[in-house]
Amino acid sequence: MILIPKEGKDPRKPENYRPISLLEIPGKVFEKIINNRSTSYIERCNLCNINQYGFRKGRGTQQAIAAIYETIAISQRNRQQCNIVCRDVAKAFDKMWKPGLQYKILNINVPHIMEKILCNFVEGRTAMIRLDTVAGPRFPLRSGVPQGSTLSPTLFILYTADLERPNNCVDVSFADDITQIMLYPLKSKEMLTAVTVNEIKRINDFEKRWKIKNKNKFQLLSVSATKPKEVIVDQERIPFCNKVRILGMEFGTRGVSTHMKRRLAMAKKQFTKLKRFKGMSTNTQLHFYKTLIRPIMDYPAIPLCISSKTNIRKMQQFQNRALRPATNRNEEDTRLTISELHDKYRIEPINTRLCTLSKKVWDKMAITNEELARTSEEQHTENPHGRDHSWWRRIAPYLENGPPDPDYAAVL
Question: What is the C-alpha radius of gyration for the chain, rounded to an integer number of angstroms?
Fold first, then answer.
C-alpha cells in the first residue's frame, strides 16, 4: 500500500491518509475480466439498488445530482416540506465486513464458480505499507476490500444493494455517499421532523446490522422557507446548515445560485495558472481552455442550465475574455467579433452548451430513473401553466422549449 494524504487534512494523523493498493498486473487483468462479467450479471438480474448511481454504466455524478435537484424542484412545486440529509460513511472500502459480504454473495444466485472467485477474493489478503523506498512488514487484512481494484466498487455496491426502499423519503446514492430527501405534504413541522428522524434511523439500523461504520456526522438542510424544528436522533442533536455540498454541487436554502458563483471563481483561478502558456499556438491554448477550464464552469449541467441569465452571462463574459488572448496571435482573428470567433473555432456559447449537456443527462435519466423523469414530465403535461418555485425550477419545461438562442454576452 502507498498512503495518499487527503486534501486539507492534518498530515500528522494516520486517519487522514487514503491507502491505495498496488496490485500485481496479472491479478488486475483477471479482476477486470471478473468485474465485467459480474457487473453484467448484476445489472441483468436487477441486483443493484435502483437509486445507486456510482460505478454503474450510464450513470454518474451528473445523473445523481439531477435526480436530487429534480426531486426537490417537484416537491417545491407541490408545496411540500423538504429536508435533506447528507451522510458520511467512514472507511467504506477499508472496513467492509468480510463475512457479511460473503454471505450476500452466496445469496444472489451467481454461478457457482463466480461465487468461489468472489468469496476467495477477500480471503487471506495481506499487505505492507511503503513510504518512499522503505517497506514495512506484511500484516493480514481482516476487513475491507483493496482500494485500487476494479472489483472493490462492484462488491461495495452489491454489499449495500439490499437497503430497503423508503416510504416518505428518496435515497440517492453514489457509492458510499447517501443523500436522503425527506418529503411531507402538509405544514406540520413536527411530522416532517418525525419523518426525518425515522428515515435517519432506518439507514442507521442497516449500517449497524452490516457493520458499516458511520461517522455520525450528518449535514442537514431544510429547503422549507419557515424555521425548521430541531432534529434529535438517539439523544444527539443534528444542527441545520445553510448549505450542503453533494458530489461537488452546492445546495442552499435558496437554490443553487451560490454554486455557479463558486465555479466561476474556480475557473478564473485556474485560468491565471495557464497564462504561462500564452506563447503557445492558438489551438494549444484553446485545447487547454476546453479541457482544464470550461469543464469547471459547466459542472453539473443540471441545474446550471436553468440558473439565472445574469450568472450565465457572467460565465460567457469570462469565456470571451479567455478566447480573445488565445486568438490574438492571428491578425485575422483580431478583426473578428466574439460570435465569429466562436463559430470559427467551434466553441459553443455557455447557454447553448449547458442546454446540450443537460439534454444528454436528462436522456440518460429517462432510462436509469424512469419513474422520476415520468413524474416530472407528467406534472408539466397535466398543468403546463403551473408555476415553479423561483429558486427550484424544474428541468422538463426548460428542455421542452428546445435550445435557447446563443447569447455571446459581449464584454462591455
Answer: 24
